[in-house]
Amino acid sequence: MNESTENQRATMRLKAGLPPGSVVFTGSRKVDDLIFDIILYSPKHCETLSPANWQEARKILDEHKAEKAWLNVTGLHDTQVIEEIGNYFSWHKLAIEDIVSVNQRAKLEDHDKHFYIVARMLRLMPNRKIDEEQLSIFLHKNTIVTFQEKPGDVFDSLRNRLIEGKGAIRGRNIDYCLYALLDSVVDQYFVIAESLGDQLEEIEQLVMYKPNSFDLAMLHQLRRELLKLRRAVYPMREVAGRMNNTDLAIFEEGTRFFLRDLHDHCVQVMDNIEIQRDIATGLMDVYMNTVSNRMNEIMKVLTIIATIFIPLTFIAGVYGMNFDNMPELHHPYGYHMVWAVMIAVAVVMLLWFRRKKWL
Amino acid sequence: MNESTENQRATMRLKAGLPPGSVVFTGSRKVDDLIFDIILYSPKHCETLSPANWQEARKILDEHKAEKAWLNVTGLHDTQVIEEIGNYFSWHKLAIEDIVSVNQRAKLEDHDKHFYIVARMLRLMPNRKIDEEQLSIFLHKNTIVTFQEKPGDVFDSLRNRLIEGKGAIRGRNIDYCLYALLDSVVDQYFVIAESLGDQLEEIEQLVMYKPNSFDLAMLHQLRRELLKLRRAVYPMREVAGRMNNTDLAIFEEGTRFFLRDLHDHCVQVMDNIEIQRDIATGLMDVYMNTVSNRMNEIMKVLTIIATIFIPLTFIAGVYGMNFDNMPELHHPYGYHMVWAVMIAVAVVMLLWFRRKKWL
Amino acid sequence: MNESTENQRATMRLKAGLPPGSVVFTGSRKVDDLIFDIILYSPKHCETLSPANWQEARKILDEHKAEKAWLNVTGLHDTQVIEEIGNYFSWHKLAIEDIVSVNQRAKLEDHDKHFYIVARMLRLMPNRKIDEEQLSIFLHKNTIVTFQEKPGDVFDSLRNRLIEGKGAIRGRNIDYCLYALLDSVVDQYFVIAESLGDQLEEIEQLVMYKPNSFDLAMLHQLRRELLKLRRAVYPMREVAGRMNNTDLAIFEEGTRFFLRDLHDHCVQVMDNIEIQRDIATGLMDVYMNTVSNRMNEIMKVLTIIATIFIPLTFIAGVYGMNFDNMPELHHPYGYHMVWAVMIAVAVVMLLWFRRKKWL
Amino acid sequence: MNESTENQRATMRLKAGLPPGSVVFTGSRKVDDLIFDIILYSPKHCETLSPANWQEARKILDEHKAEKAWLNVTGLHDTQVIEEIGNYFSWHKLAIEDIVSVNQRAKLEDHDKHFYIVARMLRLMPNRKIDEEQLSIFLHKNTIVTFQEKPGDVFDSLRNRLIEGKGAIRGRNIDYCLYALLDSVVDQYFVIAESLGDQLEEIEQLVMYKPNSFDLAMLHQLRRELLKLRRAVYPMREVAGRMNNTDLAIFEEGTRFFLRDLHDHCVQVMDNIEIQRDIATGLMDVYMNTVSNRMNEIMKVLTIIATIFIPLTFIAGVYGMNFDNMPELHHPYGYHMVWAVMIAVAVVMLLWFRRKKWL
Amino acid sequence: MNESTENQRATMRLKAGLPPGSVVFTGSRKVDDLIFDIILYSPKHCETLSPANWQEARKILDEHKAEKAWLNVTGLHDTQVIEEIGNYFSWHKLAIEDIVSVNQRAKLEDHDKHFYIVARMLRLMPNRKIDEEQLSIFLHKNTIVTFQEKPGDVFDSLRNRLIEGKGAIRGRNIDYCLYALLDSVVDQYFVIAESLGDQLEEIEQLVMYKPNSFDLAMLHQLRRELLKLRRAVYPMREVAGRMNNTDLAIFEEGTRFFLRDLHDHCVQVMDNIEIQRDIATGLMDVYMNTVSNRMNEIMKVLTIIATIFIPLTFIAGVYGMNFDNMPELHHPYGYHMVWAVMIAVAVVMLLWFRRKKWL
Fold first, then answer.
1. Contact between chains at A169 and B103 (C-beta distance less than 8 A)
2. What is the mean pLDDT of residues B65-74?
């Protein structure tokens, strides 16, 4: 979260004085130039193109108006080009502003001729860290345009299905492709929720059986990641719910059913998150209790040792005094009797501790 | 929870790239081959059949279209056969996918010609553990199809009632059979809630009267099981509520009343769960307090012993010094006076502790 | 809660396999035989009858159809008789099942020709314990039938008003009698809430002024009783609200106003409960703090004593050493100087503690 | 809360057996006789009368039916007179019962010809205590009747405005006078909320800068008072909201706007209360932490002193032994070398503490 | 918060007796005289005027009725002038009262001919403190009037856009100017939320890696500021939501879209606040745990040192006794054997601590 939010904040302050609709990139530049990918497809055919710049991409789109097209733009730093793209598709200027304001909540905006959807695209990195970026999707009658911050996304399998013609995707309207995109995003939420669940179970094992090697910062970190995931999923559920419930002309009847499934998935991830948060809170209690018990253990050792030896040391001290007139010192068995007394004191103490269940 | 969720996670990652509607089993294989059971019944007649495979089962169903039939399938690993079953009944492919995705929330889907219901089937095992599996139910005009993960379920008494013709079940429409299935599932929730209640009371007794033999992990475990039960009951209540409230053509008027009862039962289990969670939280406090008090007790013993003997040892130390000129040492009653001083100090200390209510 | 819930659980497990509508008593038998009481009344007249069994009671009811009648049945163990009663009045078999399932939430069921109402009847016993039993009420056009588990209820004053003709009750329709029954139940909730409030204040006094004689188990017990009361009141409020809001043909317009009052009372009790729960939670904090402070006090005494005497004992130890060459020992004022040093050390320590506000 | 609630409880138990509508005073008598005050006013004229009893008051009201009248009754113990008043105005008997049941929540009842409103009248006493009493208001077409428990209220300025003809109040309908009464009550809530806010800030200063002179009971007391205020404000907001939203024929259009303002004020007080509760909870944490830190400080001092001197005392002890054959004792610089060793040990310890940041 | 609230409280008490609509300034005077600023603008033209007093300002407004005008008034102490302004524009007297009651929640009031909006204007000061003042906005058909407490606001960039003719603002209706004002206010909420987020991360770093230099008061302070921000944002979101949802004739269709954006921004800030509150609570736990661990560490050191040396000191004490008959003392290797015993004891103790993982 750190890198992106720091940049975001710096730009935030800068941006707070600009008029609404100012297209200012609030993230950090992650690619050298914008990367354009176009997938043109129809039921029988699919073609992948990588135009070098917006002029070329525009030409391709103009030439293939009959085919369904998915234009993916990677990189958000070149706000000028993004404004050009926005003007080409006649998007609202506040929507264009939002593409490059990279800390949006997931949302769905209905602009009569097109829909604008924002989603948080999370990915599980090999080191178990969560990588977060903003995904903007514009859905037109025959075209989908997506914007992402950096190379690498969760859509590889979707691309393969398009290219290899697997599944129903090529034959259906473009709204199904939108669903497929969002489904890929939400599937990844599942993967992340499960990974966090694994980590939580590992932490649980540590807390239960090896509290010494447990570090509370791990649990705190996990709770932060759960918050991050939750922040992504909650508004996503609203988006799925709205697509599902309201009468949006652009969605075919058949797709409606898939949208309901999407909504169910979001609810399921949220369920998982809430349960994990509850367990994490419970673990906190268990750990705190372990710490208390360890303290009790330490105190007990100290108390037993001190309580036995302090009186004995006192007795020894008494007979180390140098008074002229100390009759015990001259008694032939004085020394042995003192030992007897000391052993008796120690034994009484030990029995008393045993009765108190401290031993 | 561990075994099933681990498998689930492994498959989850694998699945996250597949097209929607991919039938991938996310659980672990628990039977060698799918097991088929068919109960054919009409008001006057009831027959139990165990076809060896789907082809045989299909033949039976085709031949007895006039009778009400309940087909139960045990085992979900053979996704190919399950797809065949789904195609035979013309289920939506997302529903078929959900049968074998074994971490669904309870839900109700209305597919015009049939209903698809998912429920979490919990069973109380002899060792008080909770066994959880997914139950999928398809309700057609004259047929019910159920899928479960492994042999053993909560429907034995229902089967007996069908076979022996007890109760009204044979004479009523097939929707009543759906209700009877869900009622068996929810009745088991009750049994589990009560068992957890028993365990909580046992833990309460330990915390209150034998805190030494209490282990916080027990309480943590119980809270996890309560979460698990709650996760099953909450969506089940929604399902019962929806069946109860909305106008679903498939339900006879007479069944409606039973559905309301089902909903009431879910609410009652939830009530129980919430109260137990509240009590568990309260117990936590009581236990933490016991731990604190034990610590206080230990500290008090240490402090009393140390506070009495440390000054006495000092006095003994003083008269153990070897100065040439120490007049007290040569006084004939020096030694006795020192003893008097030491006893006085000890008595003053003890009185002071008594005034402070430490003794 | 213990006795009744244990029985309830045992029967629960037994019952979980029976068909819906099985009339199984889930409580423990509390009377030898069912006890029947009938009060027949009309504006000018009131008669109390105690038929020995259901046959007699039935005859009385058949003979006095013109008069308003309240039949009260005490004891639920004889399920066969209760089924007979139910069949006589043509109640739904699920309702009959609920009469003897003694762990129901308060609820209101509208069965066209009659209403079925369940309420939790709580009574404050002389030892401040709360006695709980289930009250089932069936409201017909001219008859009220009530079922309770054991002798003794909260209706004595209502009976007196009927017999002595006090208040408006004889002159009004039977629905007013239902209101009067529920009002008696809710009034008792008030009494209990107030008793718990008294106990909470006593505990508060203990925590604040005599923490030594306070036992956390008392507070835990009180919170459990608050939960129990809350569990009774919450659904009761829903029942009162539904009777108040919906158009139930059976209620006269004039009674509607009384029902609103009933609802207000429930809300008021709930308010009380919530405030008491808040205060109980706050008390917990106060007590925990008292425990911490006591620990601090103990540690402080130990530290002050130890910190003063440990250095002094060291000094005494030094001059107890037996080296040949220790010039201080032979100095004529060596002993006095050592005393001076030791007193100085002690005074410095004490001043330092005073500056630290430990003394 | 104590005095009034104790009386309330005693009567509660007594009352729990009476028929609904029994007029039983549940508070404690606070005046000798009921006090009657009548203010008669019209746009140009205002007159204040103090009839000695209800008969006189009744005569005045009968004679001045054309003028707007506000009758204020102080004292609730004489239930007979209050019933007479109620019958004169034809109030519902449950409403009359509520006047003298002095633990009502604020509420609004619409009785066609008149409204009945209950409010909790809180007053800030000079010693910062909150004085609470119940205020009942009956609003008729041309008359307002108010009941309060004891002399002294928050309406003095309202009376002055009526008498001196300040503001619009004389010229407006009687419903504006109701608003003015409630506005006075809510304004006082503000004053109390602010006073509690002041106290909270004082406590915050203590906790932060003088934790020694802070007593947790103060915070507990404050939280209780916040609960008390909240209990008064929450239902009051509902009352204001209902007056504002629903179409109550008795309210002029122009008054509606004032009612909205009343509602806003309630919301604002509630906002204040919630924030103060949050801060109070935060303070609790801060204080607990202060207590922990103080304990740490004490332990550290003890540990440093003990850890330095215990080894040194041991060394001194060794050379205090009386063995015949201890060569060190006879070495000419033995004593000095022991001192060197002891100083070295102490210095090493101190350095180690410094490295651990304990010094 | 302190300065303004203290004044507010003082006036509150004073005000609690005044009639509704009394215009009493509840803040503290922050400017000598009211400052007036008028910006007159039309699509092609923009003029800034600074009339010296209300008479001049009034004349300007009268002369330029055709142009869109934004009148900004700084300073609220001169209630007489503010009443004059209110009468000139025929505002409701409760609205005039609210302008100078400087502790209002954000709200929107629809007065047919004009709207009255209150917002909390927060500004981030260079020292990271949050400066809060009340902003009142009156929206007429062609005129906006704003009131603020003191010089300095968040509108500088909006003024520049008007003067320099940047953006669409000059060309649009006056309702867009209202949106632009609120957008500036909400943008500043973002900046503040991000600044608090930065501070929280700094505190997190401290707690995690330098717990010694962390002071809990910092976290408490941060939580208070989060509460303050939340108190401003929550009602603001309601205002934005109401402007967005309801059919307010004054808003052009085109502005509606911007209002939705405003609402989204409020929701986003609230999301941020809630997450930060969650993290802050988690940090509290982490810190408390750090404190516990430090205590454990201290206790462990004390226990190890004491437990090793106390028995050794006892042994030394024994052979410091002066009994005549102590054979060990005269053994030629007695001294060496005692050393051996003492070393053995110490080694055993150390090994035992190592086995307990304390070393």
1. no
2. 94
